[in-house]
Request: fold
Amino acid sequence: MRHPILIPFVMALILAIALLTGRRQPSDRDGRPIVVYAHPPCPPELMDLYRPIWNEFQRTHPDINFQVLHITGNYEDKIKIMFAGNVAPDVIFMYPTALPAWVDLGALEPMDEYLARSRETSHKDYFPVMLDTFSYEGKIYGLPKDASVAIMEYNIDMFERCGVAKPRADWTWEDMLKAAKELTRDTDGDGRVDQWGMNSYDWWTFVWQNGGNILDSTGTRCALLEPAAIEALEFWAALRHKHGVTPTPEATADLGNTRLFELGKVGMHFEMYPVVSIFRKTCEFQWDLAHMPAGPKGQATPAVGSAMAVTVQSRNKEAAFEFARWMTSPDGMLGLVSVESPSCVALAQSPQFLESPGPPKTKSVAVEAMEYAHVPLQHPCYAEIIDTLYPELEKAQRGTIPAREALENAIPQIDRILQRYAATK
Reply:
């Protein structure tokens, strides 16, 4: 039971007993603090990378009884059930858009004081934007593990075949659109486009690149009807309905954006860095990374990544923090440089990451993008806000209504969501 990879059915039994009794032992028979980390669903090949890392933590921290609970499917729902039973794990994995809701539930332990006391790690060890991404209302609630942002992956072979210049570090919306038009083609002569210049990236990135915001400074009003946001969303929607340089809804419904890029049907794709581990196996063409284009107000891209958070129900918060700290340090992240861009600056800027084997060639783009990365929308009602906007913005992309009309339809509902939440505070 001290092995870091616990047998799933044994853990299920332990969890069932814990839920019934409302108890989880804080220490083992030797008096060592028990730290349970709830790991999210991941494929077997990624688990093969994590196991030796966890074993190394056990080896270097013999005074902690470290255990892994590998949760498959519905990660957040299962963690919430454990919270309800007062048997939450000590450390959980999270993405930034989920952070405010966890904080609102009172589920997470602020990490500021632990960081301040640490002799091994400080704020300066992480990319500032990644710490900001996992902070909320002035407190740090998660130590960032991977510094992933949306960056561009592009098909080198397609660019060369179509005679299109490779993206420059300072390229713009207009440069991107020009390249996308030159890459978009009917390759089999049947009168229908079957090769597209680009997959579009998230609409909020266009808003930031044009100097707009999603919410106002108070967080109680949607700011998407401001001129900068409307202009950005008109450009974003026109990529599909006017210029036709992004795949049709039918094409993406059948295969999805990522698969279209893998099949060589799309020249430019936008996704977080860990997708490189997939493209190394699936892309039968040369590909590399490039910077996000600059809008009228400059470059921007959302910080995504993941973090380790200590729960308020942890029986051993100091030991739990130590695992989160170690796991996000160069020691913990070294075994993951083949699939993740580290949030610890020293490792991200080292040859161990930048010169690690396999494509992409310019891994440095993932590090340089930290300079223009943007903290994503942070609100406990994030999912409700996005779900309200999506159907209307989809109409704008299809060209059935103007972007302004789509926003006018959605924003009153969003403002009600924001004001309803504010009234509970």
The radius of gyration is 23 Å. The domain at 8-148+305-374 is CATH 3.40.190.10 (D-Maltodextrin-Binding Protein; domain 2). The longest strand covers residues 266-272. The chain has two domains: 8-148+305-374, 150-303+376-424.
